[in-house]
Amino acid sequence: MTSETGFDPKLYDRFPTREPRPEGELEELERIWHAPTGWARLTVVNNNFIGTWYVGAAFLFFILAGVLALVMRTQLALPLQGILPQETYNQFFTMHGTVMMFLFAVPAVEALGVLLLPQMLAARDLPFPRLSAYAFWAYLVGGLSFFCSLFFGLAPDGGWFMYPPLTSIAYSPGINADFWLLGIGFIEISAIAGAIEIVVGVLRTRAPGMTLDKMPIFAWAMLVFAVMIIIGFPSIILGTLLLELERALNWPFFDPTRGGDALLWQHLFWFFGHPEVYIIFLPAAGLVSMMVAALARTPLVGYQLIVLALLATGFISFGVWSHHMFVTGMPTLSVSFFSAASMAVSVPAGIQVFSWIATVAVGKPRNNTPTLFLLGGLVTFVIGGLTGVMVALVPFDWQAHDSYFIVAHLHYVLIGGMVFPLFAAFYYWAPMMSRRALSERLGKWVFWLMFAGMQVAFLPMHLTGLMGMPRRVYTYLPGRDWEVTNMISTIGAYMIGLGVLLFVIDLARNFRFTAGDEAGNVYGGGTLEWLPTGLYSTRSIPVVKSREPLWDDPKLSDDVEAGRYFLPNSATGHRETLITSPIRAEPEYLQIMPGPSAWPLFAAIFTAGFFLLLTVQAYNPSIASGVLAVLCVLRWLWETDRPVAKAHADVGAGIILPTYATGPRTHGWWAMTVLLVVIGMIFVMAVFSYLYLYGVHPSFWTSPPDAPWLLPIIGGHAAAAGFALLARRLLARERTTLWTPATLVLIAAGFALFAFAIDWWSWRATGLTGATSGQGATVHAFLALQGILTAIVALMALYLAARNARGIVTRPRNNSMDLTVMFIAYTAAQGTLAALLTRLFPGAI
Amino acid sequence: MRAWLLLLGGLIVWAVHFFGLYIVASVFLTTDTARMLALLVTLACLIADAMLLAAAMRANRAADDGTRRWIASLAALGAAISLVAVIWQGLPALLV
Amino acid sequence: MSPPISTRSAIADALAGWPPPVFDPAGPYAGSITTLAWVLLVMSVVVLGVVLVALWLALFGSKRQRARVGGTKAVWTGGIIFPVIVLTLLLVYGLSLTRSLTAPIRGDEMRVRITGEMWWWRVAYLDGEGRATMVDANELHIPTGRPVVLELESSDVIHSFWVPRLSGKLDMIPGRRNLMRIQADRPGVFGGQCAEYCGGPHALMGFVVVAHRPQDFAAMMAARRTRTVALSPQAARGAQLFADAGCAACHRIAGTPANGLAGPDLTHVGSRRSLGAGILPNNRGTMIGWIGDSQAIKPGNRMPRYTVLPGEDLQALAAYLEARK
């Protein structure tokens, strides 16, 4: 056996332990993980609660957006109906798409991750429980306010894709479009927060012995999902920022008369937007792989191939964004490359489909609701995949694009690939959080109504599209032969609606949330989430020796419940979980976790307040709200990163682990690295925008500030990074009183500010403003990004200084210090790169 | 890190290839220069894939435990699928 | 001879959805895509059949059949080898077709510039130097049997030009010019509709292409250039009203002082097959209705209501415009 961290795998043989556990351990665990009651319930951070609320909120948005769809289908049942006036219809279809994608699909799978991952990995909780709480509350408060814009006629009406110039200030002067841009803003934040949580959770909090090849497929899927969010979402974050800057400050990113280009938005949008489809599909596919094996009562066939498929999808889906742009007149060779990639991305889907079929063939699935949803979803998804291959061929897409054929295609993919698996998951996992399982009898009705409704609604739409009906039309003319298929589609839509209604009734009758006496493993799954649990998750954390531990070791549940594995108690008297190594899941240290807190909730409310007040142009209250949000975040962080009294603790069977760790192997370091990747991707997309606009309209380019300006700018950044690193070095020296490391970090922040100011000033001197041209706009976008980073650097430096003043910066190494230094170094690097690029390209080349 | 690089090597080659072609086609549009460059990039990536495939198969044989063998064989599969995808990706340079 | 006008209005015929226009091409550019569409459709049905049979065997097959479907070998065959072969063939076919459909434009084709406007189409027939020789709106006349190059532009937001029986669609993007080829092999009227969401009444932004035999086309264009308009007394009053009511601020009629450019050119409005950008048949009644209250017909369009005009004024205006062939 080999080891990743120096941990001796032979130590695993000490489990399950034989000695009886001391009295009172379980009670202590229960006390430590106790969830507050009454109003204070809102401050819980346990993943059982947050996860369930999160799923519930996502489902609420599914229903709301579904109702919008039913009203739209009613309007389209017959030609020239007046049920929805034009402008309302345009708001409805924009909201339907936006809410389904941003407020239902992504949060729903993220919510399932929060709910299921800790259980599947046998972690006590996700590594940053307060971050989960914050992500949830920001999403709920922001999402509901965003949806309410519909009731005031202020909902966005530019389509969920928001193409400028239609959404630019000239053609959308109202604040409707701002609602979209800012409303999506905090949903992006919450998605990124969740993604960081999931990456670190999957890679670092798995049960000991759960090597990569023993990870549940859902964990693989969520890992790829989270990485895709990290790579894909920055593109839309930058896009929304640019469009909002264009609308608010008249910076012409998308205005061709001043050197911008409308297609830049489409690139930014779809570089996020197509991976988004797989961001939604992969977790659902992961759920299918989990459920199909459990329901067929046999290990998944082709586990390794499925992992390959997930990874390959994660990569290839970033090479298909322009297939949404086949009709924009891109160079033929370019579109052909995207066509080829779009074909390639269907191979992994094929692998998964045939693996599922093979698993069904090996096992003996019973006729129950989750199985029906799985099989129905499979057939539906295959049809969507096939029409996907059709539209991947450029000439066919020229006909099908933006017609109802695409509406049919995308609903087949998303409903078959995500919604049906999600309903299967509802039925399959409900007994994990509910006292009663959902009703099989009602469930079959739900399935058949939804499945039949799906086919009735969307199969005819393929034809409607080939009959020439474009998408996003609020009505159509009589005499165009579109009445019949549209009427059929409407009937189907109501069948789906009826099915969902029945499901809600089933929920109301049978779903009773609980964290203790749940109905349990009714379908006989073999993975760790079916271990007996309380709010502390499992009593002890088992050593994992196979992919379906519960099937392979029938005594496992009893041993875990009796505390015969890792962490049968609270080793330190705090909430804690095991941090394990990324490949072999060897125990590394004990992470102390924060408990319930109101601050994430307040931070979320003020974050939402910041964006919403900004939208309605109440600038001063908005800024106040933003400041409060930041203060709340800092307040919640203040209690973290404190070493505990015991530097080492026995985590079971005499295995001793440290309780405080620093450096590159810590979960905090990993999270910061992931965050910096996000910020780096935003920067990469900004670089793309800069080069792209130059490529389209070089004639608008003017000369940058003279090269000597680079000296103070780069010098300033270098000094910032240097002082920050020096501070980290000096922290280890006990007797540095005169220049305390915190002072050095403040000096570093000062240099970062200086470099930024010089950069900004030098551009000012050229007379190029953000509103001048595409060049001016992108240069100032770089400056804006740098300004934000610099402000965060200043904030972090002050926060660190405050911690230092209160004597809570541990020596010789401290995580808060490490993370601040990382951030400052990154800021300096990005500032240098931006300054070099904007001054040397294209001039010096 | 080495394990991850091996595991994702094939797919990383695919990504490098794809974005290489995207840049070539964006700069040189639909011209013979673009086609030639695209073919060169494709050839380089195919060689890289083949080398990765060989390395992964070697690692698979040399592996002394299940996890390491599993990672090596997954890496080999990744290189193989990348090989196919890179060939597809190169087709437009010949056909368009 | 112009194409026959059936009992249904020509516009309704042109816009009919049955047979599905994508499967009922009228020229080579749409035709080759129709072939591709059939190939893809058959492929999809066959592959779906394979998956369904595999699933059926997995669920209800004999022990031997289930053993064949259930195993890594089946995943390799069904999930990797089979798709790779099918997709490779399709890709080669698709790429070759893309190449042939985007072959460089020769340069001696008839050229027309079509500009997307919120929510109608500006049409300009161009000469060899790219100058407009005749301006029209919402309707394009082409000769049969030869390719016509369309220069697609936009003056406001993104639109998309789509006449499915003649070609696939192509976007009209502000600041860019996209070139599209269409060709009709027989005379006829072919409808289309804007395919890129462009706000407001995007749903009601139609277009008509009329294909004539080459000699008819030449005769028609010549007639348009040389035609002198003889006005009835009612129409003459309409001409006066046209000037007085402010119509000329937005509309141009060649040979008269009316030279507004914001709205559609009305020089040949009387000969158009549709009104309101491809949404109404063109006759006296619809013309009166449109002028009087176009907002009721196409809410959100840029033409104001003229409900203040009495009936006989509307009659006179309609008579005048009807005469502008």
Automatic annotation (TrEMBL), chain A:
<feature type="domain" description="Cytochrome oxidase subunit I profile">
    <location>
        <begin position="33"/>
        <end position="557"/>
    </location>
</feature>
<feature type="transmembrane region" description="Helical">
    <location>
        <begin position="406"/>
        <end position="430"/>
    </location>
</feature>
<dbReference type="Pfam" id="PF00115">
    <property type="entry name" value="COX1"/>
</dbReference>
<feature type="compositionally biased region" description="Basic and acidic residues">
    <location>
        <begin position="10"/>
        <end position="23"/>
    </location>
</feature>
<feature type="transmembrane region" description="Helical">
    <location>
        <begin position="622"/>
        <end position="638"/>
    </location>
</feature>
<feature type="region of interest" description="Disordered">
    <location>
        <begin position="1"/>
        <end position="23"/>
    </location>
</feature>
<dbReference type="InterPro" id="IPR000883">
    <property type="entry name" value="Cyt_C_Oxase_1"/>
</dbReference>
<keyword id="KW-0812">Transmembrane</keyword>
<dbReference type="GO" id="GO:0020037">
    <property type="term" value="F:heme binding"/>
</dbReference>
<feature type="transmembrane region" description="Helical">
    <location>
        <begin position="442"/>
        <end position="464"/>
    </location>
</feature>
<comment type="similarity">
    <text>Belongs to the heme-copper respiratory oxidase family.</text>
</comment>
<dbReference type="InterPro" id="IPR036927">
    <property type="entry name" value="Cyt_c_oxase-like_su1_sf"/>
</dbReference>
<dbReference type="InterPro" id="IPR035973">
    <property type="entry name" value="Cyt_c_oxidase_su3-like_sf"/>
</dbReference>
<keyword id="KW-0408">Iron</keyword>
<feature type="transmembrane region" description="Helical">
    <location>
        <begin position="179"/>
        <end position="205"/>
    </location>
</feature>
TrEMBL record, chain B:
<feature type="transmembrane region" description="Helical">
    <location>
        <begin position="36"/>
        <end position="57"/>
    </location>
</feature>
<keyword id="KW-0472">Membrane</keyword>
<feature type="transmembrane region" description="Helical">
    <location>
        <begin position="7"/>
        <end position="30"/>
    </location>
</feature>
<protein>
    <submittedName>
        <fullName>Uncharacterized protein</fullName>
    </submittedName>
</protein>
<keyword id="KW-1133">Transmembrane helix</keyword>
<keyword id="KW-0812">Transmembrane</keyword>
<feature type="transmembrane region" description="Helical">
    <location>
        <begin position="69"/>
        <end position="91"/>
    </location>
</feature>
From TrEMBL, chain C:
<keyword id="KW-0408">Iron</keyword>
<dbReference type="InterPro" id="IPR014222">
    <property type="entry name" value="Cyt_c_oxidase_su2"/>
</dbReference>
<feature type="domain" description="Cytochrome c">
    <location>
        <begin position="233"/>
        <end position="325"/>
    </location>
</feature>
<dbReference type="Pfam" id="PF00116">
    <property type="entry name" value="COX2"/>
</dbReference>
<keyword id="KW-0472">Membrane</keyword>
<keyword id="KW-0560">Oxidoreductase</keyword>
<keyword id="KW-1133">Transmembrane helix</keyword>
<dbReference type="InterPro" id="IPR036909">
    <property type="entry name" value="Cyt_c-like_dom_sf"/>
</dbReference>
<keyword id="KW-1278">Translocase</keyword>
<dbReference type="InterPro" id="IPR009056">
    <property type="entry name" value="Cyt_c-like_dom"/>
</dbReference>
<keyword id="KW-0249">Electron transport</keyword>
<dbReference type="Pfam" id="PF00034">
    <property type="entry name" value="Cytochrom_C"/>
</dbReference>
<keyword id="KW-0812">Transmembrane</keyword>
<feature type="domain" description="Cytochrome oxidase subunit II copper A binding">
    <location>
        <begin position="107"/>
        <end position="223"/>
    </location>
</feature>
<keyword id="KW-0349">Heme</keyword>
